[in-house]
Design goal:
By secondary structure, the protein is mainly α. It has a domain of 120 residues. The strands form two sheets. Strands 1-2-3 form a three-stranded antiparallel beta sheet. Helix 3 packs across helix 8 and helix 6 packs antiparallel against helix 7. The chain is globular.
Amino acid sequence: MRPRIAQDEGQIGFHWVTPAGRPIALPDLVLTDDEPDRLVATHLEALDDALIIAAGRFGDVLGGGRRPTATEREDLRELHRVLDRLVHEYATALDRTGLVAEVRSGLIIGTAFLFSVRARQPLDLLGPAPFDGELDDPSLGVVGGFGEMTVVDPEKPWKGGRWIVRTEAGPRYPLTLAMILFDSSGTNKDASLQEHREAIRSVITSAKAADADPMAVSCALDWLLYDWLMAHRDGPDSAAIEIPKGREPDAILIVDAAAAAVTARASFDPGLLTVP
């Protein structure tokens, strides 16, 4: 007999069980299985199916169309925790098997991360974005200035950063990667993408530092990856992610960043990675 995926009627997400029926995490399963690559591929497809079901069940809430009911709040909490666990299991299994994230991996893991962020948002489970409360509110009309990726603390890169419009008059305004990529004023989009990649990688790498604050790491990656993914959707009302041809390595970045964010959050959220 083979390990299998277990999912009860009405259950959000899924988990793996051994041939004997014992719940087990995918990373533990691949260590002893004769076909670990098959298990990893099955996990990814099952996660994709779970996202389709979640979109049908919670789409209007995740999209911000309305506030969740009391019952839906509990379901959203379960949704984000399940997705976080499944994303972390997938990334860890890749690492243990030596497999590399491919484009489809980045697309599915990216959408799962978006769903997790959107599920946590109405529950007030998202920490502050970099420079939260420190930026000015732009007035109506065109704002002149220079967009730049600004880090919170160069000495502590695990605190992350964000795009900011710096004006000659002094005020600093919030900016997003999507605004940069869809700007028609001659912005160097390739350079901006590379800066954003480097900002994400910097947080992932420095998250292992002895003085790194897991809460700050989680907030930094939540914002940086969310900003990246929102700029790479296949439509304004979609959570499906695009990875353009020629940028296949971005899939690895997405998987690594999502896993690092969950790892940081699990350090102060007991049970987040526990298999049901």
